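so my prof wants the structure for this chain in the tokens format not the other one, which i didnt know existed until like an hour ago. anyway here's the sequence
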Amino acid sequence: MNYKAPKKAIITDAGFASRYLPITKTIPKAMIPVGAKPVMQYCVEECAKAGIEEIIIVATPNSKSKEIYEDFFHNPADNVRTLLEKQGKAKRFEPVKEILEFPKITVIEQDPTLPYGNGSPVASARKFINDDEAFFVLYSDDMVFGNSAIKDLLDAFNEHPDATAIIAGQLVPHEEIKKYASIDYDKETTVLRGLVEKPNPEDAASDLASYGRYLLTPEVFEFLNPNHTGLDGELWTADAIASLIPTGKVYVKETTGKWMTTGDPKNYFLAHLEYVLKNSDYADDVRKFVAEN
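here's what i got, hopefully its the right format
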């Protein structure tokens, strides 16, 4: 069947982010800032720019993450607004107003009974997805600068309304493909043949790397359950997508924005630096400081 165009997105941030301890014992990793905004906000903005109407954020269970996200996206902060107005600084409150005008955001916790793995947060949001609609999945580890990958995937869905899934990919330097999943696909039809995890560069099917932006359909949920665990007994989104390949309707979209991961402190710093150098009014000061030190 052909599914309705996606109007909902699931953004996952379920995990304890041990590489970021001790800060992540108190706040979820996706609330670490890039500029003056948390990483999670950039994911939400990417969806909003593509016309998404409802966003489901999946937070780590048994933590304060759900409470923190709900406060960030729903608290009107009237005390802050009132104080800034009294100080004649009302303009500083504009970024908060922008957050409160985002599409509908629902925050849930990952189902703690599901296995560990990046597919479990997606499975936890099943009840929010209608049987006749496609939807997006974003991993909040991944930031996309420039053009929205969600918009690119939506364009691909319009080209392939029969899709059961569409995965995003970005070209990486040949020697770096060993860090990622190499996408094996027919370049003419863009049909996915498979994913090769962390291959030796000489064995890679392509230098197109898969990352955390997907357009999926409810068919994927057949394979996102405890009966379909994979490596290390974990539930993997990529495995579920691979199970859809025999339909012949899983496509690949090379996205036009610049993907960078924030999954570890080094790459987070590089992503933050990318933002500062391309989007801040103090970029020249940073360049000068680096040149002098």
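also thought this was worth mentioning. The mean pLDDT is 93.
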